[in-house]
């Protein structure tokens, strides 16, 4: 194998498959001086420190003494994902422990044997155990960012294809500990060979998995598609930058990653707490990485790394955006309303694995807030539109209604054109007013109704309503449902003045029998005609006065309804006055 | 505490139905964590919650917390999300679903996350200062956890950095 610019094999005390990872796993690594070479300290998710020997692939809870290979018996106790690296068959099916490309802060203990490309290549990490501590300290910050997500051995060679969390792919030689962006010619041949066989298989599997996922949960479809499109997009820059040999691999990688994403969300959830810092620093890291890549470009002496597409950065941003969009979609799908508290919304979307697209709890909440604002606006708009439509529909209805009535009813109805606001208002009243309704009820209910607002000025609304209501109470107008039979008779009277009631129409409506009326009239006759004359232009106030004079009489109660009494009184008064005149 | 609704009370404006379940939930929570205060006793007796081992002051914290959450909910519905109408908002205030005085404070700069009105009343304290929960996180001793005596708030100053401020605003008076 050709190691472009890689340091010669470093004969440490033990054969290291990997240097102690230059990407420190914790922001503040303790001076690892007291660790035997090859051992690195890591933090388990529960905070327990453990120790890992990259060379032997063993891990231990117990701090290793200077006995190098580490207590083998304890290896089993190590944290998950600590299998001996690179031992699998060529092109191992990617482990399903990783949550897919972009979760930047996934605890690295899951793949401690991997190196991010930005870290490894240019300043040739002479990664031996000696300077492990130095490089660790130095790179701690940047290493946190981009991490290797997957590593696959290329057939029988010591080369691995490594995919990082930012979807960059590079090649790593475990023997020489060099990493390069572009495969060497020799490597390319192997890759091509391997690609033909393996990528096909992988792709098939990935496709199948994707299809399954789609079938299982239709809701997942959208983000998945998004991922797919992103993946497709990614492959293009890859083609351009790394040569044709890479493409198949890349596609396979992307697909496999998607698979991982689906499977690995649980891990993501578990690790979300650790992630919190990472996102904020993301940009700094990106910048750093680019810088690194830039220097790598200039620094052709070390190796021939080609600057990876800055597309990597764009993509990751895209990805965040897309994931945010997906997250909003979840909330929509799950019926989160802007009237929910965050806790309630959380309960609604918790069941959805897509929720973990956004690893940070805080980010989720802010997304929820913005979702609420958007959704509230949407609901408001929808309501407005609906009410407008309703108003229009009603108008249309009333028009048709009116037309049909016109054909049957007398000419008086036809005089009123239906599009006039008064008529629309009138119809609204007729539809929704019963004897029991009050102005306040009616007003509060239809305050926002287009039909209600159509009538201007506002004072007119109340007066019309009150007139209508009093008519209704007096029985001048039949309630709506009865009206169909007597529409021709009641309509003209209702549209005529509400204050003066023609005696004919009123007497027809009286429930009181003639005999009762007779009695009541006789009572009125006994009262002085002068008084009646005095109140020629009587209003109800005067009626009240007269009422007081006569309400002791037995005959006063003969007519049951007070409105009827008043009505009778007015008629009588009119007659008397006319006679006198 | 919201008024009891009967046929005589004013009918709720449009949109109340949508937020009613949430408000009911708050009400229920308030009931569950609520304490019946016997007339002649200063020691609250819990209805459901065991109060053994709790300090006297702690007994009332849940009430403050739920009160804060509910007011915050209404405040956000109207001012942040703009999801309810002014009519409904005023109705809610009038009916006691939200504390208008507290919301008035939230609208002022520097008081965006105030936990309760007691904590910003300097007259109630011996030194004539506000509560300890009003002190910005970075002015406190490093790593010191405070719980104010009034409502159990762990810090509600506006400028306490993104992390702490967020935490305190979402569930301000935490127990």
UniProtKB/TrEMBL annotation, chain A:
PROSITE patterns: FF, WW_DOMAIN_1, WW_DOMAIN_2
Name of the protein: Transcription elongation regulator
GO cellular component: nucleus
Keyword Repeat assigned: yes
Presence of the UniProt keyword Repeat in the record: yes
Domain of life: Eukaryota
Compositional bias ranges of the Pro residues kind: 19-35, 81-106, 114-125
Compositional bias of kind Basic and acidic residues: 217-239, 382-406
Cited Pfam families: FF (PF01846), WW (PF00397)
Gene Ontology MF annotations: RNA polymerase binding; transcription coregulator activity
Gene name linked to the record: TCERG1
Stretches with biased composition (Basic residues): 136-146
Keywords: Repeat
InterPro entries named in the record: FF_domain (IPR002713), FF_domain_sf (IPR036517), TCRG1-like (IPR045148), WW_dom (IPR001202), WW_dom_sf (IPR036020)
Organism of derivation: Podila minutissima
Biased composition (Low complexity): 126-135, 407-419, 485-507
Biased amino acid composition, Polar residues: 294-307
Domain WW: 33-66, 153-186
Region (Disordered): 1-146, 208-248, 265-284, 293-314, 382-423, 476-513
Boundaries of every FF domain copy: 513-575
Automatic annotation (TrEMBL), chain B:
Key word Flavoprotein present: no
GO biological process, one term: mRNA splicing, via spliceosome
Major localisation: nucleus
Keywords, in A-Z order: Nucleus
Location(s), subcellular: Nucleus
Key word Nucleus present: yes
Record GO cellular component, one term: spliceosomal complex
Protein family: Belongs to the BUD31 (G10) family.
Protein name per Swiss-Prot or TrEMBL: Component of the SF3b subcomplex of the U2 snRNP
Organism: Podila minutissima
Gene: BUD31
């Amino acid at each position: 194998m050709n190691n472009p610019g890689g340091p010669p094999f470093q004969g440490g005390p033990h054969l290291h498959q990997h240097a102690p990872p230059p990407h420190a796993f914790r922001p503040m690594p303790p001076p690892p001086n007291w660790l035997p070479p090859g051992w690195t300290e890591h933090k388990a998710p529960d905070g327990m420190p453990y120790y890992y020997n990259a060379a032997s692939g063993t891990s231990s809870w117990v701090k290793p003494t200077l006995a190098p290979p580490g207590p083998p018996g304890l290896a089993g106790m190590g944290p998950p994902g600590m299998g001996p690296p690179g031992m699998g068959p060529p092109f191992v099916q990617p482990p399903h422990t990783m949550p897919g490309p972009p979760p930047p802060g996934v605890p690295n203990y899951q793949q401690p044997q991997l190196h991010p490309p930005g870290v490894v290549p240019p300043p040739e990490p002479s990664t031996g155990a000696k300077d492990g501590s130095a490089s660790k300290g130095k790179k701690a910050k940047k290493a946190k960012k981009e991490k290797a997500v997957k590593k696959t051995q290329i057939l029988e060679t010591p080369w691995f294809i490594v995919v990082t969390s930012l979807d960059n792919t590079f090649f790593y030689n475990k023997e020489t500990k060099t990493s390069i962006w572009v495969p060497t010619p020799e490597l390319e041949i192997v890759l091509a060979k391997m690609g033909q066989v393996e990528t096909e298989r992988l792709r098939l599997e990935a496709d199948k998995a994707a299809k399954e996922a789609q079938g299982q949960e239709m809701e997942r479809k959208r983000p998945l598609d998004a991922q797919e499109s992103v993946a497709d997009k990614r492959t293009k820059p890859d083609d351009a930058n790394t040569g044709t040999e890479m493409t198949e691999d890349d596609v396979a990688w992307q697909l496999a990653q998607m698979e991982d994403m689906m499977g690995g969300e649980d891990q993501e959830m578990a690790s979300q707490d650790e992630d919190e810092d990472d996102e904020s620093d993301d940009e700094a890291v990106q910048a750093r990485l680019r810088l690194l890549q830039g220097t790598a470009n200039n620094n052709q002496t070390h190796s021939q790394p080609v600057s990876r597409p800055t597309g990597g950065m764009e993509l990751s941003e895209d990805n965040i955006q897309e994931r945010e969009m997906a997250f909003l979609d979840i909330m929509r799908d799950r019926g989160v309303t802007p009237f929910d508290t965050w806790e309630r919304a959380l309960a609604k979307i918790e069941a959805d694995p897509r929720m973990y697209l956004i690893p940070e709890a805080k980010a989720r909440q802010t997304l929820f807030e913005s979702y609420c604002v958007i959704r509230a606006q949407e609901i408001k708009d929808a309501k407005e539109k609906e009410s407008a439509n309703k108003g229009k529909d009603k108008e249309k209805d009333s028009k048709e209604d009116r037309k049909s009535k016109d054909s049957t009813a007398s000419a008086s109805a036809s005089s009123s054109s239906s599009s006039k606001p008064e008529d629309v208002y009138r119809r609204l009243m007729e539809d929704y007013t019963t004897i029991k309704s009050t102005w306040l009820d009616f007003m509060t209910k239809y305050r926002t109704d287009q039909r209600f607002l159509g009538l201007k000025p506002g004072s007119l609304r109340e007066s019309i309503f009150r007139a209508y209501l009093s008519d209704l109470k007096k029985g001048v107008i039949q309630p709506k449902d009865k009206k169909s039979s007597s529409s021709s008779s009641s309509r003209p009277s209702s549209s005529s003045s509400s204050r003066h009631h023609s005696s004919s129409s009123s007497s027809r409506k009286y429930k009181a029998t003639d005999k009762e009326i007779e009695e009541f009239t006789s009572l009125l006759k006994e009262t002085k005609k002068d008084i009646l004359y005095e109140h020629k232009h009587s209003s109800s106030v005067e009626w009240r006065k007269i009422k007081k004079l006569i309400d002791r009489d037995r005959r006063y109660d003969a007519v049951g309804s007070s409105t009827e009494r008043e009505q009778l009184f007015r008629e009588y008064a009119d007659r008397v006055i006319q006679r006198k005149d | 505490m919201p008024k009891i609704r009967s046929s005589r009370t004013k009918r709720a404006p449009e949109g109340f139905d949508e937020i009613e379940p949430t408000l009911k939930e708050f009400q229920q929570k308030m009931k569950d964590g609520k304490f019946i205060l016997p007339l002649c006793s200063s020691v609250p007796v819990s209805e459901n919650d065991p109060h053994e081992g709790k300090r006297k002051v702690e007994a009332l914290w849940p009430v403050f917390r739920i009160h804060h959450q509910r007011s915050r909910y209404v405040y956000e519905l109207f001012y942040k999300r703009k999801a309810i109408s002014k009519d409904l908002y005023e109705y809610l205030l009038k009916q006691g679903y939200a504390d208008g005085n507290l919301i008035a404070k939230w609208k002022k700069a520097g008081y965006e996350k105030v936990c309760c009105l007691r904590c910003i009343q300097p007259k109630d304290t011996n030194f004539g200062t506000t509560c300890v929960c009003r002190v910005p996180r970075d002015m406190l001793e490093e790593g010191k956890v405070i719980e104010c005596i009034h409502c159990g708030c762990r810090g509600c100053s506006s400028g306490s950095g993104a992390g702490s401020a967020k935490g305190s605003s979402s569930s301000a008076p935490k127990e």
